[in-house]
Each structure stands twice: as structure tokens, then as C-alpha cells.
């Protein structure tokens, strides 16, 4: 899976409909974004989740959808504009957005192609029964205090589908370990062709990059 990080952010304003549309046109098989919830319960897509008005900074949770800047799309906007023929990886930035994201994806019959990412795997475990979306523990190897094998076993027991690590954390041995527990292996911040190529060769299932052209080049070189 070739995920365009915040859309084609190397070529367009990140987390906008233009960036998402461009990423798909360039050949990305997946999109990545970040979800927050507004005061009126709408899941919206932005990295920081803050509205800046002069010196004032207000979280999205204190703003209604219609008060946000026009370039910030809702999840519903994304599906209406881009359709559903792609994998969609969403970092849940506000836990209150979790149920709303599922509801919107379900309305568009896209829940099965949704990858919901969160750093707290125990929170994901508690939410497993709510959805058939794939659940992803986004973390770093150094944060697995009991080691990767213990984490792989915990994720498998909890029904959490994947682990998402910085590309520098991954090795062929680590992908083999998580695959032994039937967990997907995903890498983020892969910005160079050689890195993407090597990740795919070591068995990574999904790669996140700002550069869709480099994603494709790395994938082709890995063959």
C-alpha cells in the first residue's frame, strides 16, 4: 500500500481536497490524514487541529464546522470528492473523533478500507468491537518497553491489525516477527526512493511518504 502522507503534500497544500485528489491521480493507492472533531460533532481533517485568528489559538473542539477555514475538509468532503476506491489511513488526533470517523466511513460504505491509527494500543483494544476497520498502533520501537515480540503478541490478542513505525525502526527481522503474529507492518516518513525500496524489500506492507512519485519509483525498484 502506497500512502500519500496528508495527500500529495510535496506538491500541494497538505490535508486539502486538492492534495488528496492529486495524490490519487499520481498513483497513490492510499491516503493518509489526521482527524479532529468540531464542537458540533463533525470529523475534520487537519494536522494541528488549531484555528489561528491573529494572536488567538482555538482548538477545533471549540469551533463549529462552518467557522473553520474553507481549505479544511471534513471526512465527508473527502469521500464525496475522491470516492472510496483507496485505502484511507487516519491518525485519530482527538479520541472524541473516533466514533464519528467510523460513522462517516460507514455511511460511504468505506469502513473496510479504513485504517485507524493511535499511539495507545489499549485504547484501540477497547474500541475493537465498534468497527471492522483496521486498527493500527502508531508508535516507536523505543516505546515498546517490554520489546517488540511482547507488543506483537498483545496486538494479536487484542485484534489490533497493524503496527506503524518510523522507517528507521524497521528491519527485515522485525517485519518477520510481526508477520509471524499476522500483523501488518507499516512505515512512515519514508521520503527517499532508496528507503522506500529497502522497506518494500524487507516485507513492509504499507509505506507513508510525502512524495507519490518516489513511492512509485521505490516500489518499482524493489521488484
Main β-sheet: number of strands, strand sense, barrel status?
8 strands, parallel, barrel
Q: Which band does the percent of strand residues land in?
A: 15-25%
| Structural shape | globular
Helix count, per DSSP?
A: 8
Helix content: 25-40%
Structural class: alpha/beta
Q: Helix and strand string, N-terminal first?
A: EHEEEEHEHEHEHEHEHEH
Order of strands across the widest beta sheet?
Answer: 1-2-6-7-8-9-10-11
Instruction: Calculate the mean pLDDT score and round it.
Output: 96
Which oligomeric state applies? single chain
Cα-to-Cα separation, first versus last residue:
15 Å
CATH fold title:
TIM Barrel
Number of domains: 1
CATH architecture: Alpha-Beta Barrel
Unreliable residue stretches: none
Q: Whole-number radius of gyration?
A: 17 Å
Q: Name the CATH homologous superfamily.
A: Phosphatidylinositol (PI) phosphodiesterase
User: Can you tell me the CATH class?
Assistant: Alpha Beta
* Tally of strands: 11
Describe the structure.
By secondary structure, the protein is α/β, with parallel strands linked by helices. The protein has a single domain (2-222), classed as Phosphatidylinositol (PI) phosphodiesterase (TIM Barrel), CATH 3.20.20.190. It has 8 helices and 11 strands. It has helices spanning 17-25, 75-82, 98-107, 121-127, 148-158, 172-180, 193-201, 212-222; strands spanning 2-5, 30-37, 43-45, 50-53, 56-59, 87-92, 114-118, 134-138, 162-166, 184-188, 206-209. The protein has an 8-stranded parallel β-barrel, surrounded by 6 helices. Strands 4-5 form a two-stranded antiparallel sheet. Strand 4 and strand 5 (56-59) form a beta hairpin. Helix 1 (17-25) runs parallel beside helix 2 (75-82) and helix 7 (193-201) crosses helix 8 (212-222). The longest helix is centred in the last third of the chain and has 11 residues, at 148-158.
